[in-house]
Write a structure and sequence with these properties.
Layout (H helix, E strand, L loop, with lengths): L2 H12 L4 H16 L3 E7 L5 E8 L13 E2 L8 H8 L3 E4 H4 L17 E8 L5 E9 L8 H21 L14 H15 L5 H14 L5 E4 L6 H10 L8 E5 L5 H9 L16 H4 L4 E5 L6 H13 L1 E2 L8 E2 L3 E6 L3 H7 L4 H7 L2 E4 L10 H15 L6 E2 L1 H9 L5 H15 L6 E2 L1 H5 L13 H19 L4 H8 L3 H8 L4
Parallel strand pairs: 7-12, 7-13, 8-9, 9-12, 14-15
Antiparallel strand pairs: 1-2, 1-6, 2-3, 4-5, 5-6, 10-11
Helix pairs in contact: 1-2, 1-5, 2-5, 6-8, 7-8, 14-16, 15-18, 18-19, 19-20
The structure holds adenosine-5'-triphosphate and magnesium ion.
Amino acid sequence: MTEQRSDDWAGKLRGCDAVSDAAVILAQAVGETAQAWAVAVFLLDYLQENLLPYASWPNADGSVAVPRQPLPLQTRKEQDILALSMRAGRQFSLPLSTAAPELLQFFPGLPEDRRSIAMTFPLVAMRNAPIGSVLLVVPSDAVLSRRITDVCDLAAMVIDGLVRQKKYAHLVRDLSDDVESLKTRRQREQGAAARLLMGSGAVMREIRSEISTVAGYDVPVLITGETGTGKELAATAIHAASARSEAPYVTVNCGALPAQLLESELFGHVRGAFTGAVNDHTGLLRQANGGTLLLDEVGELPLDVQVKLLRVLEDGKVRPLGGIEPYAVDVRILAATNRELQQAIDRGTFRLDLYQRLAGYELHMPPLRERIEDIPGLAAYFLTVLQRELNREDMSFSAEALHALTVASYPGNVRELLRRIRQAVIKTAPHETTIHRHLLFEGLPETKGPARVNLPQAVAALEAVLIEQCLHACAGNISQAAKSLGVPDSTLRSKLRPQQ
Ligand SMILES: Nc1ncnc2c1ncn2[C@@H]1O[C@H](COP(=O)(O)OP(=O)(O)OP(=O)(O)O)[C@@H](O)[C@H]1O
Ligand SMILES: [Mg+2]
């Protein structure tokens, strides 16, 4: 491939205004650059739990024909080279038959004699956020060009930009106003961070204020809470509201990588440190220098890695595996866990001294059952986001569905609420705009929890949504809305006044 062609890819990618177009161009660019036999491009879904196939190359008629079946991430499986590559931010290769025979489904027409080496490249957006992986099938003697990584990096930036444009459209303000003072900018960052964590109830308001406060102090924060309560989102918010917000924000899932890989990911390694270490690797701690590192699922850190991490936190120096020279680093550490660290400490699987270092401040994210007043607002917000993501419009919940949402119990917390709504939107026929109750709970065990429901809170939450829907239908006309709700104007007005 000539320079001229490579510039063409860059131009074409930058000109894309839809994620799927960028994925198609990426598949083609990688395929031609690598002279591969086949290529498939996968992107992470909104929940960051599945890889969705977006484009494949080549197809006889030039079309994109990939099965749209989501591929659940199996980060603990060492052969899952798509997930490993994405999490570790680098290339992996294995014989296609070992890598995962199921990957063959993405290349239905690939002849037997071309099922050789599977190779994966990560798609990593700015700030080291993984957004997907590219899978290539190449001849066993393929020589790979450095340009593949360049094309992947550029595509990741473009795709991430397009996704953000969609996801955060509601946050985009008047961008022409670029002469604002630093102070106003800081305030806006904090506002944006707070807006990441939805929820209008008192508990969530308190958490947002706690985040704004702790963000201002350069101390390590340990974020605890059940699964799906928003720990990762809280960490993002702390970084975004801190003085380090312009510096790198790097995250690592301590439970997602095998121990040795995790160690080299965190501390880096020098060339030749172990079999397969063909290049120097900087490591995440140094990549995060000046910024913030989130140690997600910190309770899963193997004991020997805990010891090394503690040393870094104590002396501010990182020693890459196999290296002699230590490097000074200045990184703010955030850690998140849904495990009871105290129990792990008692059992001897988590070091007390490391816990004390990490918990400079402890932020607890309460389960959804302790803030059910947030459910209607969260449900409305997710519906808006999902409609955009799934190309639907004008959808709303039936009153029965809303009631069911408010009284259901959610062992998976906010993530489960999101997942139920996503499932219901997908299952609602294309011409239908009302989401019915049974679709929200279909296929998932419906946990009825009357014992756990706080009746006044549930009633208030449902009331708030019905009023909002009615006001919307009446274009904000209070008298008309009051009439249709069957209450006097004054009652509706008093309910609309902010409660302290
Ligand atoms: N208050 C909130 N407002 C909007 N979205 C939220 C909120 N809390 C959680 N979410 C969404 O719910 C999902 C789960 O959140 P997150 O990943 O932060 O949870 P977690 O506590 O880290 O879970 P786990 O322990 O399973 O890793 C994400 O998609 C996140 O965007
Ligand atoms: Mg998490």
